[in-house]
Design a protein that fits this description.
By secondary structure, the chain is of the alpha+beta class. The protein is built from 12 helices and 26 strands. The chain has 3 domains: 202 residues, Alpha-Beta Complex (DNA primase, PRIM domain); 30 residues, no CATH class; 62 residues. The strands form 9 sheets. A 4-stranded antiparallel sheet has the order 2-1-3-16, covered by helices on one side.
Amino acid sequence: MSLQEQSSLNKKFLKNTINNYYRQKILREPPLLPMREIAIQPIDSKTYVRHLSFPSMIKLYEYVTKKTPLHLYYSVAVYDNPSAEDMEAKGLVKADIMFDIDVDHYSGCSEVVTLCSRCGYVDKKDLKQCPRCGSKDLVKIPQVTIECLKRGWFDALKLVDILENEFGANKITVSFSGSRGFHVRVEDEHLTRLDRDERRAVVEYINMSNLDLSRIVPKIKIRGRGVKAAFSKEREYGVRARLKMLATQLLEAEDYGDYILVDYRELSSLIDAVRVEVDTVVTIDTSRLSRFIYSINGKSGLAVCELDPDREFNYTYKDFRIVDGVVKVRPLYDTPKLMILDQEVKLRKNELMRVDAYIGFYLALKNLAIVVDSSDLEVIRPCRLST
């Protein structure tokens, strides 16, 4: 069987599964849907279909079940004419602010296994070209653990705290991206009217990029005590409040009348603990597309799920699956043991194996194996949603 025939079998399986999922009508309708641009990447295409608009979710579902999207997006922006192909002609009204927290920048969270789909070469490195055959037709398999996601969740919570207490936001949605991180979306009117330059300033404040600490916390030389940073015993605001909270918890603090003093050199070591690294490009782009809540992320086969920032992140990848049960697959390659989502899997070419359905779905998406029996598969509602 040729690679093209194998790929065709997988696409048939994926189309059927994805269509059954969206027939549940599970998507979260965004505010002002008719004024949003809708975009999809069909499962049988490498290009996106953009500049779509729909008057209702009913019409969107009709379209989705015909086109079978690998990815499904709507614009952060609200437009007068969302279906116009020229961005200026769309008529920007306002745009939600989106923050992207991707965990692959954390130490130990960037490992990627690369597989060459032409010759089957496997390397535990993020390659751009196969060193064996020179092909650039590569499959990337991120090795992101739940522990890495927990680190991202901690940063997402820090970001929510900053947005609420320092920007006055209260319309905030936090979601698992379906892959390697989290999205934090803000819909408060006073923030959705910000232009690109103002959004860039917001990001620089949150990232604390180009920070001159001495302007925020001036150095104070006290005879016999050295160089100190002083914080008011009363209320502090913004970055100073965050630094004060950590400094009083982690550093040796001295009482000095109306002030609390800490060693200035030690204070600078706390900067990374109070900043949040977010993707500047994502946040400043008012024409950005974002995934529908409860849509499928076509990179992983997992659902984009809204999460409660007041709850502990005690999820596993399995909680975000859209299928349950077991499937039988025929691997197309030999591999060493790999982390496929949260399971360790070793593939042997043409050797039939039974795997959990969400693992089989992932293998089919990456075209690493053919699903030959899905009779025990059940399409389900993800994210612990009740039926």
